[in-house]
Amino acid sequence: MAKAKKATTKKAAAKKAAPKKAAKKAAPKKAAAPKKAAKKAAPKAKSARKPNAAFMKALTPSAALAAVVGASPLPRTEVVKKLWAYIKKNGLQDAKNRRNINADAKLKEVFGGKTTVSMFDMTKLVSKHLK
Hints:
Structural class: mainly alpha
Strand content: 5-15%
Radius of gyration: 33 Å
Number of strands: 4
Order of helices and strands: HHEHEHEHEH
Shape: globular
Low-confidence stretches: none
Distance between the termini: 98 Å
Largest sheet: 2 strands, antiparallel
Helix content: 55-70%
Number of helices: 6
């Protein structure tokens, strides 16, 4: 029986040693965490983002596009906003596939004669009508 007690003592000692190793590993992780926090603070010091001048440049719409958004020169972003307002006002977005726009007579001229256009292709087609 004395041998059995010695064996259990060795097992208990081995179990106690394992948590010490884990504790040693955890300590360096805590030391590294403040360094990460210091790095995150540095980007906040950057200045605010400036708008791209190319997007704000006023462009003159063609006659076909002017029938939808107006004849006055507008930035590209405003042209797209007015185009979407026109699409929503007249209910031209496809009911089943919301990514598609069903063109009416005015938009058909802008879309190059296409009756249905994807919203992603729409901006490409509209850019041809801006100078």
